[in-house]
Amino acid sequence: MDKLINQFEFGLFFWQIVIFVGLILLLKKFAWKPILDAVNEREEGIKNALLSAENAKKEMQNLKSDNEKLLADARAERDAMIKEAREIKEKMINDAKLEAQATGEKMIEQAKAAINSEKNAAMAELKNQVSSLSLEIAEKVLRDELSNKESQAKLVEKMLGDAKLN
Known about the structure:
Blueprint: H1 2-6, H2 10-146, H3 149-165
């Protein structure tokens, strides 16, 4: 440092200061404004980017809430559709049960009617057979009794006696 102070020249120092001030003036006139403009543009760009990011964030929140609403609506609609499908299923099962029950009752009634008609037909046929057999038996008994003249006369007298009493 002593060496620098010992070798100090005032003229050289003066010219260095002049050149330095001239350089600062030149920089101020030609470079400082474009540099400041670039810095200001950069600052504005950053501010705009931050505002855009904030707006995008708000928009994303709005979209998120809209999506949540849509999801809630879709879930509600899905639940309603599932409930409706269950109700339809239950109704179909109940209708099928009622129809099967009605068909079963109808078949039972038809079977009862068929049994009654068969029973009545069997009873009528039985009566016919009994009456036929009764006639045949009566005919055989009468033949046996009427084959004898004495028995024939007694039978006629008995019938005449019965007829007078009635």
